[in-house]
Design a protein that fits this description.
Elements (H helix, E strand, L loop, with lengths): L7 E8 L6 E9 L8 E4 L8 H6 L1 H27 L11
Parallel strand pairs: 2-3
Antiparallel strand pairs: 1-2
Length: 95
């Protein structure tokens, strides 16, 4: 049996100032997530051997879920920065 991984999924849409133009849309999962290629996945930082381990320490479980949420937020920020990054300048040729 596979370990229990804290899992967080999010569908994210960033709208423009007009509240209509979609500037970004993404599907994100941390831990175990959907197996389709539409989802950007980040691995869980920790796992629990079984359900008893998962519920034995609520603080550890909450911390693991917080880490998963933070990792998703970082992945979203990376995506947005990559889409907003200007193209690098093309070096001019010298003869």
């Amino acid at each position: 049996m596979s370990p229990y991984e804290p899992t967080v999924t999010a569908e994210v849409t960033l709208l423009g100032r007009d509240h209509k133009t979609v500037l970004y849309h993404g599907l994100h999962a941390a831990g175990l997530g959907p197996s389709t290629s539409d989802w950007r996945k980040v691995p869980a930082r920790r796992s629990f051997a079984d359900v008893d381990g998962l519920v034995a320490n609520p603080a550890a479980t909450a911390s693991a879920l917080t880490e998963a949420g933070t990792d998703i937020a970082r992945a979203i920020a990376d995506d947005i920065q990559l889409r907003a990054a200007p193209s690098p300048p093309v070096a001019g040729r010298r003869s």
